[in-house]
Design goal:
Helix content: 40-55%
Largest sheet: 8 strands, parallel, barrel
Distance between the termini: 43 Å
Shape: globular
Structural class: alpha/beta
CATH architecture: Alpha-Beta Barrel
Strand content: 5-15%
Radius of gyration: 18 Å
CATH class: Alpha Beta
Number of domains: 1
Number of strands: 9
Length: 292
């Protein structure tokens, strides 16, 4: 299956009982697939993966594979940030669930990052044990420290099933050497939509983001046929969905649009009435809901 330029960190809808709403999840995933967007399931951000049990994550992977597998790539997210054994166990179960690829975040073992030799060992153990396409995540927001580019280059040479790098880093100048070093061997996607023109100009492969949860067509359109008008709309949507934090605003927006989303997994709380009113006004200005 051809890998699309745009992937979405999908939300995880919950029902009134707080459990995963599988029917709503299937509807949401099909909407993403209709837009040609690949899906990442149970991510620590949009997917509330940090609040899901391992069994809930595996079931979410299974539902996604059954719902849209074969139409768009289904990648298992929400894996990593812990010890090697737990990460390996969840990754192995994700492979058995039939996902097309596994994304692994580096370990977060405390206030201090792991030593370089520990980080390399962690990556090698996983790459040697998980016989499936794998994507590494450089995410300063979640891991709290960077993945060394030299290490990723070495791993890409040693492990052909390492397919990509998802790069979430506010420092735009750091992106150029990453794409230059890796884009010939790995799929390099950015996790910040404001960096879309930069990664495209540098020769990167696309974007992994949360905005397609609300508008599955917009990001692929901006990527394939860039215009300042469409890019401005994307930035406006990003601003609107970021104000109250991810995934609070995303789920509130989907509910306003009459789409399945459900509430949030505690301790997260829904946005306030004032925030909700402002969000709906913004959605109306952008044409996503009626202003009546």
């Amino acid at each position: 299956m051809t890998s699309p330029a745009v992937f979405c960190m999908s939300i995880t809808p919950f029902g009134p009982d707080g459990d995963v709403d599988e029917a709503g999840f299937r509807t949401h995933l099909s909407r993403l697939a209709d837009g040609g967007v690949g899906v990442y399931v149970a991510s620590q951000g949009s997917g509330e993966g940090h609040l899901l049990s391992s069994d809930e994550k595996i079931r979410a992977y299974e539902v996604a594979v059954d719902s849209v597998g074969g139409r768009v790539p289904v990648h298992a997210a929400g894996i990593g940030l812990g010890d090697t054994a737990a990460t390996l166990s969840l990754g192995s179960r994700a492979v058995r669930a039939g996902v097309d690829a596994v994304q692994v975040l580096p370990p977060r073992i405390g206030a201090a990052p792991p030593r370089p030799v520990e980080l390399e060992r962690y990556c090698r153990v996983l790459l040697e044990a998980l016989d499936c396409p794998m994507y590494l995540s450089h995410n300063l927001y979640l891991a709290g420290y960077p993945l060394p580019v030299k290490l990723i280059e070495t791993l890409a040479t040693d492990y052909p099933h390492l397919k990509g790098l998802n790069w979430s880093d506010p420092a735009v100048p750091a992106l150029a050497p990453v794409v230059e070093a890796l884009a010939g061997r790995l799929e390099v996607r950015v996790g910040i939509v404001g960096h879309l023109p930069v990664v495209a100009a540098l020769g990167g492969h696309g974007v992994l983001c949360f905005e397609p949860n609300v508008d599955p067509a917009l990001v692929p359109s901006v990527w394939s046929d860039f215009s300042l008008e469409q890019f401005g709309q994307l930035l406006a949507l990003n601003d609107l969905l970021s104000r109250s934090g991810n995934p609070r605003s995303i789920k509130a927006a989907l509910r306003a649009m009459g789409l399945p989303a459900g509430g949030l997994r505690p301790p997260l709380l829904d946005i306030s009435a004032t925030e909700d009113s402002q969000l709906k006004a913004g959605l109306a200005r952008m044409g996503y809901v009626s202003d009546r």
